[in-house]
Amino acid sequence: DVQDKLDETMEHTINNDAMTMVVALSYSSRWEITKAVRDIVNEATDKCVTGQIDKSVVEKMITEETISKHLETSFMPDPDLLIRTGGELRISNYMLWQIAYSELYFCDTYWPDFGENDLQEAILSYQSRQRRFGKTEEQVESDK
User: Fold this and answer.
1) Which residue from 8, 20, 46, 133 puts its CA 20 to 30 A from 81's CA?
2) Which among 74, 86, 76, 89 is positioned nearest to 40, based on CA atoms?
3) DSSP states of 64-104
4) Do 23 and 6 contact (CB within 8 A), yes or no?
5) pTM, 2 dp
């Protein structure tokens, strides 16, 4: 039933391009980051003539950009807003790398009951915030 509903939703929204919504099922951020690091180390080893890991090669390869490119979510932008439903005040191993500068919204409504009004409340909350991307309010103001 869930797969059918997801297929229906994807078909219904196939031409939409203003927003990206990601529903991650059986997803683990720790698994994703671990896999990305393994892939990067394998690539670094392949670039070494001796087959041994060369520290200078690894240091050049392991950058934020490289890690981002090796994540399963590399095809999409980092989220601006993460909505956590169900009254939990935790991230639960979800997109740990990608939400570094996301705005977080927590609500008591459980996901199956999360509707249009809940989404509007989340968006209104998001719109009232100042996006700072790790800076203080004073730093943002001085950059203007």
Assistant:
1) 8
2) 74
3) HHHHHHHSTTTTSPPPSEEEE-TT--S--SSSTTTTTT-EE
4) yes
5) 0.77
How far is the C-alpha of 82 from the C-alpha of 55, rounded, in Å?
A: 36
Given a contact cutoff of 8 angstroms between Cβ atoms, the answer to whether 57 and 44 are in contact is yes
pLDDT surpasses 70 at 23: yes
Give the C-alpha separation, 114 to 107, whole Å: 9
- The one-letter amino acid at 12: H
Q: Cα–Cα distances in Å, from 41 out to 38, 46, 116, 123, 135?
A: 5, 9, 44, 40, 32
- Average pLDDT, stretch 40-52? 79
Under 8 Å between Cβ of 81 and 102: yes
Residue 46 is given by DSSP the state H
Give which of 80, 87, 81 is closest to 111, Cα–Cα.
Answer: 87
> Could you tell me which residues are beta bridge partners of residue 84?
106
The structure tokens listed for 21 are 């919504």
Alpha carbon distance 70, 40 (integer Å): 7
